[in-house]
Design a protein that fits this description.
mainly alpha; 3 helices; single chain; about 80% helix
């Protein structure tokens, strides 16, 4: 019996595609800025208000710990 699993080429495509997608997203975030992206997402109600409130509490708590 051959128990050895072969490496499928589609896995390599998923890895490379994910890396490219991550690089593009990182470039956009770097150019636009994470604060601007968060403000736009909050204004368009893409994120529910309860999660937005939780994010604000977490970020304010994080800032107070840094001081």
């Amino acid at each position: 019996m051959n128990d050895k699993k072969d490496f499928d080429k589609s896995y390599l495509g998923f890895v490379i595609g994910g890396a490219i997608l991550g690089a593009v997203a990182g470039y956009i975030v770097k150019k636009v800025g994470p604060k601007n992206i968060m403000n736009m997402v909050k204004q368009k109600d893409i994120i529910p208000p309860s999660i937005t409130k939780l994010m604000n509490e977490f970020s304010s708590r994080q800032k107070s710990m840094d001081d």
